[in-house]
């Protein structure tokens, strides 16, 4: 298994500007530099997730994307503006935009509040989304999160298809720390995934600082025990 970002790169976190993070983009960037990160992707939730949760979109997306009005004036951290997209149904339809704009890094996830399909066909949903959109998906976000649909998810089939299509799986550190990970599913994923991102999925500065360190400590112990 190749860990794509074993160094100071974190490609899944959320801001107050566009999503459900507790901190602004500038605060994330400032503290990412203090915590030793070199590159981050701010991957706020998609339009579908924001609508489902009732979250307000607080800032016009064009300010940070395409127009170039926002610049990192704080440090040398490289900042990518991505999206945590959503699988919508068993047909593999997705929402991968914020205010109608695609990001420069797509984490594709399935959130029970957003998914509109049949939970018993969730494996089909993942596989069809991979088949249709593999070229734009960087990583499947938190595929082992505790959720009502996990009993129906064939994580082995999803992981093997992701391997074939060159899509990485995510080891989600915030879910691990907050005990939101289905450990049996995670074990199946880790033993089969060819490429993995270790991401914080930070919603707070505390998670941005500590979650990946705890995730890597878990992985070292995991492989030692095996």
Describe this structure in words.
The chain is globular. The protein is built from 7 helices and 11 strands. The protein folds into 2 domains: 8-86, no CATH class; 87-92 and 113-226, TIM Barrel, CATH 3.20.20. The protein is α/β, with parallel strands linked by helices and 226 residues long. The strands form 2 sheets. Strands 1, 2, 3, 4, 5, 8, 9, 10 and 11 form a 9-stranded mixed sheet that branches. A two-stranded antiparallel sheet has the order 6-7.
Helicity, as a percent range: 25-40%
Mean pLDDT: 96
Q: Determine the strand fraction and express it as a percent band.
A: 15-25%
Principal-axis shape: globular
| CATH superfamily annotation of the largest domain | Metal-dependent hydrolases
Biggest beta-sheet profile = 9 strands, mixed
Query: What is the structural class?
Result: alpha/beta
Supply the CATH class of the largest domain: Alpha Beta
Tally of alpha and pi helices = 7
Unreliable sequence segments: none
Order of helices and strands: EEHEHEEEEEHEHEHHEH
Tally of individual domains: 2
CATH topology of the largest domain: TIM Barrel
How many E-type strands?
11
Radius of gyration: 17 Å
Distance between the termini: 14 Å
Architecture of the largest domain, CATH level 2? Alpha-Beta Barrel
Summary?
By secondary structure, the chain is α/β, with parallel strands linked by helices.
